[in-house]
Protein: Propeptide PepSY amd peptidase M4
Amino acid sequence: MAMPGTLALADIDHRAARELRLSGKILPLERIIEVVREVKTGIIIETELEFEKGRYIYEVEILDDDGLVWEIELDAATAEILKIELDD
Structure:
């Protein structure tokens, strides 16, 4: 399957996302959310799946109890946290 350089989760049709998950190239979003909740509590307000620098990356934005928005990037194949930062 050919994929453009950067994809938002909403831009990937359900068949392509399912194929990526079933092929083992990405973890289910449910697993990613479990990992995010281990490091930051709050309301998830946005998720994106991108292909960047040769790998798939989930970006999750979460609104914490103090009203701050955090961006958490995770490797989509391993759930390794790559970055946690306050969103501008």
